[in-house]
Specification:
Elements lengths: L1 E4 L5 E4 L4 E6 L3 E5 L4 E4 L3 H17 L5
Length: 65
């Protein structure tokens, strides 16, 4: 899950595993695999960073093999 900010300033938590695409046009639009889209204040690169950090945090929870 990643926390992003709607254009009205309210925080929103998005399941990063449901993100299909992130675009800047010029606002940052997150499109989910179910077709919903969310426009957020964070720039595209920040959404990508948050998603990567989330993925890394999940892998750290796995026991060593």
């Amino acid at each position: 899950m990643i926390t992003v900010t709607r254009l009205n300033g309210k925080k929103l938590v998005v399941n990063a595993e449901l993100i299909r695409t992130v675009e800047e046009n010029p606002d940052t639009t997150i499109k989910l695999i179910n077709g919903d889209h969310i426009i957020v204040k964070e720039p595209m690169h920040r959404v990508v960073e948050l998603t990567v950090e989330y993925g890394r945090s999940l892998r750290r929870l796995l026991p060593p093999s």
